[in-house]
Amino acid sequence: MALGFAIGVFGVLILFHAAYSTIQYRGLLKLTEEEFSGPPFNVVIELSLGLVLCMWAALTVPGKFLSIHPDSEENRIVSLPANLDFMIFNHRGKVFPVEMDLKLKQ
Amino acid sequence: MVTKTEENQLNRLESQVDNGGSGAWEYLCLVRKLKLRRSDKVLKHGLSILNNPSKRSALGPEEWTLYEQVAVAAMDCQSLDVAKDCIKVLQKKFPDSKRVGRLEALLLEAKGSWELAEKAYSSLLEDNPLDQTIHKRRVAMAKAQGNIPGAIEWLNKYLEIFMADHDAWRELGEIYVSLQMYKQAAFCYEELILSQPTVPLYHLAYADVLYTLGGLENLQTAKKYYTSTIDLTGGKNTRALFGVCLCTSAIAQITKGKSKEEKEGAQVQSLAAKVLEKDYKQRAPDKLPQLTTALKSLTLSS
């Protein structure tokens, strides 16, 4: 968890560094008056590395993914709620005595 | 709807609390959230919290909800004096409360004094005529007194005003099934499926009612709903699989001699039979021979 977080921060830092290098490269190109076609090759590698690290961190840090299938083992409906609004009290449980002396103390 | 994870959590908490561990308050909250009827355990553990002044003050304002929950559980377990004590405490705290008035009327119902309870409910209804729980309690009272047609009448009047209450539709469907009025029960289950189409249990109940009604169209619709249940549960519902087999053989029996275009019907039935056999082989292998003979007789008689 902490490792994933650290890797995520590291990935974000790599992305910022790549952005800074690209801005510097553009400044350099403005000095030499060349066209800015795209960032240099090593910046592209740095970008993809930062992408991989950030994605890995985004998938591991939030924790366990929950299933979305309605029929998966965790999500399947086991029983409907007992209709408590329509509960009636004169059932056969009346004849069973409560096993202990339950009282509400004041 | 109680899902499997929630059921596991509930069982774990229950065994933990029953063996003297902590976590009684989480257990009670979970029971309240899932709307289960575990009155004996709620009573025992709720009273253990309420009788312990330190734990009681640790709850803060939730204490009164616990009093209410324990009062209802006590009425269900017929410990009426416990219920009366809880209600007295609540009355002292909230003197003019409708909720406490409802609890008192509920206590009268539990004691069996139906006329007094009826009077209490009517007076509560005069103050707020659109209170859903009080209407439902009137239905429950009629049901408890054995006056099922009266309960049906009250419930129909309630559903004319509050048409979106799916618990009430379910209750009405179950009452009709108990009285064998299957056409009306089918209507109720249709309403349930309309409001909650992703709950496979409603599809299953509807298909059962249609299969009981019989007749070619009902059987075909029942088969459709059994297959939709199989679809929603990913093929794990044994009852729906059996339902498909029975429906197909019943349809084939009715259409015997008429033109045979039901080729895909046989395919669905053979698929369902295969899944059933695999399931039985895995879970109850000693019953497998009986299953195969039963399925063979179904297909032979069609």
UniProtKB/TrEMBL annotation, chain A:
The keyword Transmembrane applies. InterPro entries: MMgT. The chain crosses the membrane at residues 45-66. It is found in: Endoplasmic reticulum membrane. It is a multi-pass membrane protein. Signal peptide: none annotated. The keyword Membrane applies. Pfam families: MMgT (PF10270). It comes from the Eukaryota. Its main location: endoplasmic reticulum. Keywords: Endoplasmic reticulum, Membrane, Transmembrane, Transmembrane helix. Component of the ER membrane protein complex (EMC). Belongs to the membrane magnesium transporter (TC 1.A.67) family. This is Membrane magnesium transporter. It comes from Stylosanthes scabra.
UniProtKB/TrEMBL annotation, chain B:
TPR repeats lie at residues 166-199. Keywords: Endoplasmic reticulum, Membrane, Repeat, TPR repeat. It is a peripheral membrane protein. It is found in: Endoplasmic reticulum membrane. Residues 100-209 form the EMC2 TPR-like domain. Pfam families: TPR_EMC2 (PF22890). PROSITE patterns: TPR (PS50005). Component of the ER membrane protein complex (EMC). Belongs to the EMC2 family. Part of the endoplasmic reticulum membrane protein complex (EMC) that enables the energy-independent insertion into endoplasmic reticulum membranes of newly synthesized membrane proteins. This is ER membrane protein complex subunit 2. It comes from Stylosanthes scabra.
